[in-house]
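Consider what follows.

. . .
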Amino acid sequence: MATEIRVPTLGESVSEATIAQWFKKPGEAVTADEPLVELETDKVTVEVPAPASGTLESIVVNEGDTVEVGALLGRIAASGAAKPAAAAPAKKAESAPAAAPAAAKPSAALVDVVVPSAGESVTEAGVGGWSVKVGDVVKVDDILVELETDKAAQEVPAPVAGTVVKIAAATGDTVTPGQLLVQIDPSGAAAPAAAPAPAAAPAPAERTGSAMPPAPSAAKLMAEKGLAADQVAGSGKRGQVLKGDVLAAVAAGVSAAPAASAAPAAVRGPVAVEDEAREERVRMTKLRQTIARRLKDAQNTAAMLTTYNEVDMGPVMELRSAYKDVFEKKHGVKLGFMGFFTKAVCHALKEIPAVNAEIDGTDVIYKNFCHIGVAVGTDKGLVVPVVRDADQMSIAEIEKEIAALGRKARDGKLGMAEMQGGTFTISNGGVYGSLMSSPILNAPQSGILGMHKIQDRPMAVNGQVVIRPMMYLALSYDHRIVDGKEAVTFLVRVKESLEDPRRLVLDL
């Protein structure tokens, strides 16, 4: 009986894919879990493994065809052939070294360390940096490698103690959940001499980005836009250019300019060559690529507008000064400004629900809860952990949650669930000295509040000029859903709550 090969689930928002290439032809022998076909979506390329061993009986869809999740791709006929395994390494060079240890007696005890699942919406990761090399002896929970997804970095620990005998992915490679990363021999056997080769071999292809031709849909879109392959940076496997890469390049302003691109090469002289020698080219992390793409998408999609106001921080500072010691002693966390701002924002969101809503096609989704994202800067980039149901929390509970999330963010320990589902975001540029800025929306949210530096300024109070600690506030909002009156009213309500903190206590 033939075994069917079908399109796997590709993620919550992905319903179809394009057949990029088949690795096998009808009549060829296949082994279970051997890659048969590569599917390409707007976000990622996915290899579909063989569900069983046998012979590829038929291919139902051709390269370049578009298929939906669950669609039939082909069939595998059961075969009694003895050893089709020998054909598998010939297809993928990196599999060849694995064949020898597999047949050897010590390999029976090898422990495979694979790419862990990082959440429903995360289908791939980049290999950031290895902490071990072939031949190293590791202990349980020693960090082996750091993986970079489009949302956070994730460290992979050693599940057992032993000797690293194989590294199956090089720094910069793109890997998927379940893919082999490294093999550990718990018996402590020495590593095969040929084992380091697979890790080093893919590096040149990753650097050049030319190991793979553009995906079919990407090639078509590049032809329509008049773009050359060297104008688009590929994010797919082995540097393959995907449709999403072309769209990102177009959004970034890349355009066809053959004459202009030739000119710089002609005028390059000794000075340009000397400058290039002093430059440093560093590959963007997955997190940084995603930050760049999402911020640009927000600008391209939303009708973004910013309104400003200023708040006298004196009352909050006086309250904080009077009770900070007692607060810290009772709750075990310092009393900062974020607790007050988060509560003030929640009060304002209840009054102006449009700022807490989002657009989905032709519908507006109003959120009857406040999940407040708090932007945190890390050495790897900006992340936005979410304080869930902040409207139901006290200032002390909010401060504790923000402190815990901030530590996780700086340590690279944030989970996917802790960065999803936010309905509104607060960004505090004041900690870096920013006096005023216009924050960019965190799509699909419709509002983001920018906090800034507290600075003493002369203010007119009751007819007298006095020095007050003032802060500029900025609310960026999506004008498609939030009217100017609503935006201004929201910011005024935040200002009123902060200038009279008693309103927060009395829920006014």
